[in-house]
Design goal:
It is an enzyme of class 2 (transferase). Its EC number is 2.1.1.-. By secondary structure, the protein is α/β, with parallel strands linked by helices. It has a single domain, classed as Rossmann fold (3-Layer(aba) Sandwich), CATH 3.40.50. It contains eleven helices and nine strands. It has a seven-stranded mixed sheet, with helices on both faces. Strands 1-2 form a two-stranded parallel sheet. α1 crosses α2. The longest helix has 20 residues. The protein is globular, with a radius of gyration of 18 Å. The termini are far apart. Bound molecules: S-adenosylmethionine. The site of S-adenosylmethionine has 22 residues, from α1.
Length: about 280
């Protein structure tokens, strides 16, 4: 008898298997970008032939550079806020809450589709002040379940591209309207990322469709009232990209002469509410 967990996911929900696996591969590198031992343990718990994903460790920085960057930004937010709320949307099987291990003042919500949350419950232990919400991101009433009495870190990594622009903007507006202050930390594909989706193994194999292209922070600033830009980076110029391996560094050098490709994956960080 095996205690491995079986999975039955399709479409966007399935994409988190690839991000999890790439983090697990990175954890075995001599010099990892993220070093996520929880991802390694998680893939061992799942009954799945990971080779079916058709990716190798060379691809890992595509995911780990982003995740490591958002870990830095999330830690910065938590370092300057007392009691606060973290809403981690499209969490998949990412172990951020365990990597960051926030203190007792932080209420942490991991949010994803019901099938993903059910899987999470079988893979990871519960912990104090930690909540799981099983819901499509686009049914905005889920936000009403989260007390809005404290500053919020709304962190949405790897999900915006699966939303339509209309749904994505409505979601960001609702967050800013509901909470007194906080940050939006969210990544986007630009038009190159969206138009090249049929060439992206992760997207093609899951049968997902990417919708929302964001080319620059102004695209968000002009449509979500009340926010201000704190920082933006791309896959290739994020501080964490320095940790990438040789092949990644070679691609990084090559794309410096191709700005739309260099900016295909963008990481944005905004604040809203009173300036403190
Ligand atoms: C590429 S994975 C990223 C997972 C995780 N953030 C990471 O970086 O490893 C995308 C995640 O977004 C979730 N997702 C996509 N569209 C969603 C929606 N409309 N509502 C809720 N979750 C969604 C998927 O289920 C999946 O877990």
């Amino acid at each position: 008898m095996t205690d491995k967990v079986s999975i039955d996911l399709t479409g966007p929900a399935q994409t988190m298997l690839t991000t999890l696996y790439l983090k697990a591969l990175d954890a075995d590198f001599e010099q990892p970008v993220l070093g996520d031992r929880f991802a390694k343990e998680a893939i061992d718990r799942i009954d799945y032939d990971w080779r079916e994903l058709g990716v190798s460790g060379t691809w890992a920085p595509l995911v780990t550079v982003r995740t490591a960057q958002y870990d830095i930004w999330a830690r910065q937010f938590l370092a300057v806020h007392g009691p606060c709320t973290v809403v981690h949307l499209g969490c998949g099987l990412d172990s951020r809450v365990f990597r960051i291990d926030p203190g007792p003042d932080v209420q942490w919500y991991d949010v994803d589709f019901p099938g993903v949350i059910a899987l999470r419950e079988q893979i990871y232990p519960s912990r104090p002040n930690y909540h799981l919400l099983a819901t499509p991101a686009t049914e905005l009433s889920w936000l009403d379940q989260i007390p809005a009495d404290k500053p919020v870190l709304f962190l949405a990594e790897g999900i915006s591209m699966y939303l339509t622009e209309e749904d994505g903007i409505a979601l960001l507006r609702r967050v800013v309207e509901r909470f007194p202050s906080g940050e939006l930390q969210i990544d986007f594909y630009n038009w190159v990322g969206i138009r090249s989706q049929r060439m992206q193994t992760l997207v093609r194999r899951t049968g997902s469709t990417l919708h929302w292209a964001v080319n620059r922070p102004d695209d968000i600033l002009s449509r979500v009232p009340g926010i201000r830009l704190l920082a933006s980076a791309t896959l290739f110029d994020a501080s964490t990209a320095e940790r990438g391996s040789g092949p990644f560094r070679a691609v990084r050098r090559a794309v410096t002469v191709l700005p739309p490709v260099r900016k295909a994956l963008q990481y944005h960080r905004y604040a809203f509410g009173p300036v403190t």
